[in-house]
């Protein structure tokens, strides 16, 4: 048995536009300029409070970052429902998940910096909820690259981390996988560069979702 653990934002779905808009409105609400989209993309994958603190150049989460996190969560659903704020699957993700789900030797899970509510919304919106049997979110574990998300998913279903493959677009995904003793596969269609993923410890890089299947053969 193998376990495929997918990151969500930047790996399964293209959510950068939505995340950036919510983040930008949050910064403006607290009296800051709108951040550049490249800065927002650089923190996607981290737990929200840590992401905001890092965007501000702070070494630790402080009271303001906590307040900004609360505001972000408050306005997120409303922004998501605005026209043009859809969160589509990347091309090729649906057939990949469908094929993995048909393989009795492969289990599917999610490890994400999103909230539990946010992950459930994505999985239900795209009809993936029945396929993902285990998951850990920012509500459950320390932020990536801490290995807890991977290790807890493996523990829940009785698998060794060495039999898990983390598929993600962020350096934090690669670092998390290696820290947990799992295989790390980086995707080229997300928000980090291929060079950064390799430097972070990726065991392989895939250029199209269908290429993920090769790592389970």
Tertiary shape: globular
Write down how many β-strands occur, each being a DSSP E stretch of 2 or more residues: 6
In CATH, what is the homologous superfamily of the largest domain? HAD superfamily/HAD-like
Give average pLDDT, whole number: 97
Rounded to the nearest angstrom, the distance between the terminal CA atoms is: 11 Å
Order of helices and strands: EHHHHHEHEHEHEHE
Rg over alpha carbons: 17 Å
Q: By helix and strand content, what is the structural category?
A: alpha/beta
Second CATH tier, the architecture of the largest domain? 3-Layer(aba) Sandwich
- The CATH class of the largest domain, by name, is Alpha Beta
- The total count of helices amounts to 9
Low-pLDDT stretches: none
Number of domains: 2
Helix content: 40-55%
**Beta fraction of the residues?**
5-15%
| Largest sheet descriptor | 6 strands, parallel
- Which fold does the CATH topology of the largest domain refer to? Rossmann fold
Strand order of the largest sheet: 3-2-1-4-5-6
């Amino acid at each position: 048995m193998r376990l495929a653990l997918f990151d969500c934002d930047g790996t399964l779905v293209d959510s950068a536009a939505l995340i950036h808009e919510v983040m930008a409105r949050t910064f403006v609400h607290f009296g800051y300029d709108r951040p550049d989209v490249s800065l927002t993309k650089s923190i996607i994958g981290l737990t929200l409070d840590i992401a905001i603190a890092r965007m501000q150049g702070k070494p630790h989460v402080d009271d303001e970052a906590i307040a900004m996190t609360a505001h972000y969560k408050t306005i997120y659903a409303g922004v998501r429902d605005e026209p043009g704020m859809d969160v589509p699957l990347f091309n090729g993700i649906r057939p990949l998940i469908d094929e993995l789900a048909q393989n009795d030797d492969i289990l599917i899970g999610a490890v994400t910096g999103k909230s539990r509510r946010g992950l459930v919304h994505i999985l239900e919106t795209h009809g993936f909820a029945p396929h993902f049997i285990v998951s850990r979110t920012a509500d459950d574990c320390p932020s990536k690259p801490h290995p807890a998300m991977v290790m807890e998913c493996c523990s829940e279903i009785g698998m060794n981390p060495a039999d898990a493959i983390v598929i993600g677009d962020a350096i934090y995904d690669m670092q998390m996988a290696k820290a947990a003793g799992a295989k790390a596969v980086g995707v080229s269609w997300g928000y980090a560069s291929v060079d950064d993923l390799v430097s972070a410890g990726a065991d392989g890089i895939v250029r199209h979702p269908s290429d993920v299947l090769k790592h389970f053969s």
